[in-house]
């Protein structure tokens, strides 16, 4: 049975119809954490986050406290919030910006205070029109309320927060690409090193880039203490996490549950969560952390939902998106659609990604649509090996950013787990599911 | 003479003032140009180039990277149907096919009456209500062919005007706050506050 007794850290207001308004926010403890933080030293605020051992919720899972400690000392530095959520089947930041934009803004102000940064940019995915309006309204309300602007709540701390709309590009979720977009350019990821924007980021200045969900955890952590957060979950995966459950389940949705204490099976089958598979079909495979992640078979359903636990089995918890595929799903079609996504979204800077993604997509398309050849199956693996040599996990990189090495995941998984189906597509002269 | 109407020109200038460098305002200004014309016209691109101290070629080169900007005229309503993985598993491809028939235009083109442009989109992050449909980036949550047809009727009848503004209008909430202080002043205050904190800490520990 799922363990559902953990406090709701980021979704405590979500069930209210007016959860996005300042009135509801203030009536439910809003800005109390900020007031508390402003009585603390910035280093003390950062120490709480360090103690919480909050792992970044964007996808890479880098500890937020450590990221903050890397910020190079400089007269000008920036905090940038990454709200460019575009990993297919990931929809938890979308949920947070629409349902509780004030919580995000409060978290952002707390982080800016801890970092002693006076300028924040919230980069929000352009397709989130309602989310953009709600976050802008929350920012406006915060200025009116004295929570933003000059000398916040009569402290000596001043802060400006600017909402920056994206314009439709998956790659801008990559933090250096996001920074390029924020500088008004094409979203090309930057060549590394320097590896971290904390050293050289926006306009060449030190910049911390944190995810929306990461920021939204901060008010609770400051109010209840880092130790209380770290007491939840297990191992390195502390606290709760939002999981976006999608695909062939009865109740797809965003669920906040304690990390590690619950398994994939709990999330997918508990009546209060996923509620099982549509028409009680059998699970064929799951994608555990966004389409960049290698797939799991049903034998791994009892694996705990923890970052290291999933990594040990050769995949990642990534963006917190879990897609369930059942026996009605054609894995060739699924991996083709995922590959077409990467092909469309490749920024085009690096040859293996730009050329490889399109080539793979065309081979998968012909397999699915009756033009496949038996040697195509190994051709797919060979092409994947050229993008991420050795097809290991985590993948070897031949490109500037990790979009390229993410392409082989679905193809390699599908062929390793369901080679027979690829063969059947060739012998059948197209998809046997059609 | 500004190509932007007065109100948009004013908003554009406010946006530029938010950034340390003018060019950073590129994406939001392109959204404004699209709000005025429904797509990025040559005049709109020239206007953004002037405002950001860049060239029209540079602006066009940047804009063409991003899916939300249209370099050709589109209908009043841009209808996007997602077929990415979660929607694929929920009938997104079939819904897109239905949309194409219902609107009388192929994917990527505009309906004969000029009102609708149909697009196949990547994941729109609303997967609990798959297959996902957006009109002018507003979620319309019409997951079945019947609901889709109803929605199209409502759009034609103007019954969704409040929820779905014309294509190009993205953020209807205007920013009304700001720091409105010189950076040097803020930095000085920050130093002062730090000194005060250190004095307080020293006093407490002594």
Total strands of chain B: the figure is 4
In the CATH hierarchy, the third-tier topology of the largest domain in chain A is known as: Rossmann fold
How far do the termini of chain A sit from each other? 37 Å
Write the element-wise H/E pattern of chain B from the N-terminal end onward: HHHHEHHEEEHH
Largest interface: A-B, 79 and 63 residues
Proportion of residues in helical segments of chain A: 40-55%
Strand order, sheet with most strands of chain A: 3-2-1-4
Largest sheet of chain A: 4 strands, parallel
Shape of chain B: extended
Overall shape of chain A: globular
Report strand % of chain B.
Answer: 5-15%
**Mind telling me the C-alpha Rg of chain A?**
22 Å
The share of residues in helices of chain B is 40-55%
Q: Please, how many helices of chain B?
A: 8
Q: What does this protein look like?
A:
The complex is a heterodimer of chains A (434) and B (206). By secondary structure, chain A is of the alpha/beta class. Chain A folds into three domains: 22-229, Rossmann fold (3-Layer(aba) Sandwich); 233-326, Ubiquitin-like (UB roll); 331-427, de novo design (two linked rop proteins), CATH 1.20.1440. Chain A is built from 18 helices and ten strands. Chain A has helices at residues 22-27, 32-39, 42-52, 64-69, 92-99, 101-115, 129-145, 175-182, 212-216, 218-224, 226-230, 264-269, 307-312, 331-345, 351-368, 376-387, 403-406, 408-427, and strands spanning 78-83, 119-124, 160-165, 207-211, 233-234, 237-238, 240-247, 253-258, 283-287, 321-326. The radius of gyration of chain A is 22 Å and the shape is globular. Chain A starts with 21 loop residues before the first helix and ends in a 7-residue tail after the last helix. In chain A, 61% of the residues are buried. With 206 residues, chain B is α+β, with helices and mostly antiparallel strands. Chain B has a domain at 77-156: Glutaredoxin. Helix content of chain B is 45%, strand content 8%. A four-stranded mixed beta sheet of chain B has the order 2-1-3-4, with helices on one face. In chain B, α1 runs antiparallel to α2 (26-37), α2 runs antiparallel to α3 (42-52) and α3 crosses α4. The longest helix of chain B is centred in the C-terminal third of the chain and has 23 residues, at 183-205. The chains are: A alpha/beta (434), B alpha+beta (206).
């Amino acid at each position: 049975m799922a363990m559902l007794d953990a406090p709701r850290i980021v979704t405590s207001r979500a069930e209210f119809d007016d959860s996005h308004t300042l009135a509801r926010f203030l009536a439910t403890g809003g800005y109390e954490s900020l007031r508390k933080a402003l009585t603390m030293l910035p280093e003390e605020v950062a120490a709480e986050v360090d103690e919480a051992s909050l792992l970044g919720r964007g996808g890479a899972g880098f500890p937020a406290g450590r990221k903050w400690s890397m910020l190079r000392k400089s007269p000008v530095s920036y905090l940038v919030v990454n709200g460019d959520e575009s990993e297919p089947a990931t929809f938890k930041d979308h949920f947070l910006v629409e349902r509780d934009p004030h919580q995000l803004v409060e978290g952002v102000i707390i982080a800016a205070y801890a970092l002693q940064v006076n300028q924040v940019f919230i980069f929000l995915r352009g397709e989130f029109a309602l989310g953009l309006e709600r976050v802008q309204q929350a920012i406006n309300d915060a200025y009116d309320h004295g929570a933003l602007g000059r000398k916040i709540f009569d402290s000596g701390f001043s802060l400006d927060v600017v909402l920056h709309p994206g314009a439709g590009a998956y790659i801008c979720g990559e933090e250096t690409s996001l920074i390029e977009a924020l500088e008004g350019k094409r979203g090309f990821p930057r060549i590394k090193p320097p590896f971290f924007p904390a050293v050289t980021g926006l306009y060449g200045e030190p910049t911390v880039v944190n995810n929306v969900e990461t920021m939204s955890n901060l008010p609770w952590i400051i109010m209840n203490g880092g130790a209380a957060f770290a007491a939840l979950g297990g191992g390195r995966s502390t606290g709760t996490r939002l999981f976006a459950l999608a695909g062939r389940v009865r109740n797809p949705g965003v669920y906040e549950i304690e990390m590690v204490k619950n398994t994939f099976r709990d999330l997918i089958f508990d009546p209060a969560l996923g509620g099982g598979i549509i028409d009680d079909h059998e699970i064929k495979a799951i994608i555990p952390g966004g389409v960049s992640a290698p797939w799991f078979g049903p034998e791994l359903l009892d694996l705990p939902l923890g970052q290291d636990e999933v990594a040990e089995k050769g995949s990642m918890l990534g963006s917190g998106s879990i897609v369930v595929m059942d026996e009605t799903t054609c894995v060739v079609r699924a991996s083709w659609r995922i590959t077409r996504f990467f092909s469309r979204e490749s920024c085009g800077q690096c040859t293996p990604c730009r050329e490889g993604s399109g080539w793979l997509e065309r081979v998968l398309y012909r397999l699915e649509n009756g033009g496949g050849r038996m040697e195509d199956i190994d051709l797919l693996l060979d092409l994947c090996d050229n993008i991420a040599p050795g097809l290991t996990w985590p993948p070897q990189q031949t490109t500037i950013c990790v979009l390229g090495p993410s392409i082989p995941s679905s193809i390699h998984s599908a062929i390793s787990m369901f080679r027979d189906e690829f063969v059947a597509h060739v012998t059948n002269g197209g998809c046997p599911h059609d | 003479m500004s190509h932007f109407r007065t109100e948009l020109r004013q908003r554009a200038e406010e946006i530029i003032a938010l950034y340390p460098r003018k060019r950073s305002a590129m994406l939001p200004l392109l959204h404004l140009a699209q709000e005025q014309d429904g797509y990025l016209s040559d005049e709109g691109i020239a206007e953004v180039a002037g405002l950001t101290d860049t060239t029209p070629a540079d602006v066009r080169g940047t804009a063409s990277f991003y899916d939300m900007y249209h370099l050709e005229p589109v209908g009043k309503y841009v209808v996007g149907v997602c077929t990415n993985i979660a929607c694929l598993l929920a009938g997104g491809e079939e819904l897109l096919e239905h949309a194409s028939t219902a609107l009388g235009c192929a994917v990527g083109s505009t309906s004969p009456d000029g009102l609708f442009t149909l697009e196949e989109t990547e994941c729109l992050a609303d997967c609990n209500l798959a297959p996902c449909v957006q009109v002018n980036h507003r979620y319309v949550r019409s997951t079945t062919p019947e609901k889709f047809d109803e929605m199209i009727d409502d759009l034609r009848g103007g019954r969704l005007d409040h929820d779905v503004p014309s294509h190009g209008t993205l953020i209807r909430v205007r920013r009304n706050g700001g720091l409105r202080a010189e950076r040097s002043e803020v930095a000085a205050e920050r130093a002062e506050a730090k000194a005060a904190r250190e004095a307080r800490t020293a006093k407490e520990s002594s």
